[in-house]
Design goal:
It is built from nine helices and twelve strands. The protein is of the alpha/beta class. The strands form two sheets. Strands 6-7-8-3-9-10-12-11 form an eight-stranded mixed sheet, sandwiched between helices. A four-stranded antiparallel sheet has the order 2-1-4-5. The longest helix has 18 residues, at about 190-210.
Length: about 325
């Protein structure tokens, strides 16, 4: 696994709740439990993938780690320092080390700004170097992401989706961060250019010595880029393992169902499908006990009463399931 033993980011008992309605007295009446008591360690130099169905809290978790969203409870530690209590200016300086690659490359780029202005904006904001040095830095990062220097004075609408995503990546890396959250970075791209962008992300990880949190609903993409994978369901992490361990020996029923849904490009190979019953419960009113019990064919009485804790079943393979309790 391409990682050190040093923990770069640690998520400790993090919750994020959104109040959707209040009473006349101002008390919360409806609360969305977007991220529910998540614990996660991210090691220097690794790529950890986060997968799950739409609405499970993947993107909210990523934004909470970056403090773009303030957690309701819990701590985010960066190299052992609790960044949840930092003042505004302290957090602003910390963000030089932590960046985000957005999902939609067109929506995240100001159509009135040139490529030069877009990529140079973070350098301007932090007043890094002289104007000449900033422009030189833009040229260097553009070359690194495979964008010719003569494109600097063009606007976002003049580029393809893959080229726009390269601009977004360049802007995220121009400050030389250590940790990058990739929020579905290829989901808005054509299949033909996804591999190019994924390979670029992989190459930049080695070149810039980056650590990634890679968010996606596409399990085949996550397997390609990740060292470890965390599976989320309704705001909770239900399984964490190395990619080989997770794909070859999944333990949680939800993980097994997700993996069985991956298309196989071999018409002669038959695979048993795990079909999930019912719909995902509402995060406004999650089930009692294990959140997955309403859709799990193995659910017993304890599953409906007690929420399982994420525990190690060996070799760093973490599972939150009563079936795996020793």
């Amino acid at each position: 696994m391409a990682q050190s033993n040093n923990v770069l980011v640690e998520v400790k008992d993090v919750k994020k709740e959104f109040v959707t309605s209040k009473s006349l007295l101002g008390k919360p009446q409806k609360i969305v439990h977007a991220v529910d008591n998540v614990n996660l360690k991210i090691y220097e130099g690794e790529t950890i993938g986060v997968v799950g169905e739409s609405g499970c809290g993947k993107s909210t978790l990523g934004r909470t780690i970056l403090q773009l969203i303030t957690p309701t409870e819990g701590q985010i530690l960066y190299k052992g320092e609790d960044i949840t209590g930092l003042r505004k200016e302290e957090m602003r300086q910390m963000r030089r080390k932590m960046q985000l690659i957005f999902q939609d490359p067109y929506a995240s780029l100001n159509p009135r700004m040139t490529v030069l202005e877009l990529i140079k904006a973070p350098l301007d904001a932090y007043k890094i170097g002289t104007e000449k040095e900033r422009i030189q830095k833009v040229k260097e990062i553009m070359e690194l992401v495979g964008m010719p220097e003569n494109m600097m004075n063009r606007y976002p609408h003049e580029f393809s989706g893959g080229q726009r995503q390269r601009i977004v990546i360049a802007r995220a890396l121009v400050l030389d961060p250590e940790f990058v959250v990739c929020d579905e970075p290829v989901s808005a791209l054509d299949v033909s250019v996804r591999a190019q962008v994924l390979n670029l992300i992989q190459d930049l990880k080695k070149t810039k010595k980056l650590t990634y949190l890679f968010i996606s609903h596409d399990l085949s993409v996550v397997k390609y880029v990740s060292d470890r994978i965390a599976v989320m369901y309704l705001g909770k992490i239900v399984e964490v393992a190395t990619k080989d361990d997770l794909y070859n020996h999944p333990q949680h029923p939800y993980t097994k169902a997700l993996l069985s849904a991956i298309p196989i490009p071999d018409v002669d190979k038959k695979m048993k499908r795990e079909i999930l019953a019912g719909d995902v419960p509402s995060p406004l009113n999650p089930p009692k006990g294990c959140y997955f019990n309403t859709r799990c064919k193995y659910a017993s009485d304890i599953c409906k009463q007690k929420c399982p804790l994420l525990h190690d079943i060996g070799n760093g393979h973490l599972v939150a399931c009563h079936l795996c309790d020793k």
